[in-house]
Amino acid sequence: MWADLVEWARGAMRIEGNELASEVDFKIPHCVNTIEETIALIRENRAAWLAAQQGK
Fold first, then answer.
1. Alpha-carbon distances, residue 33 vs 16, 22, 36, 45 (angstroms)
2. Range list of H helices, the chain
3. Mean pLDDT score of the chain
């Protein structure tokens, strides 16, 4: 995801009195610069998800 897109959304969606998102929502997107970073992030999140499934 583009960092500029996230910053634009933060400004557009957090207009005082008409908030469509909270600051917590903007911790969800992960901005990466390379395919290698993307793959590492997917693997990390999959491993965390699998670990959580074993605990259920």
1. 31, 25, 8, 17
2. 3-13, 35-54
3. 90
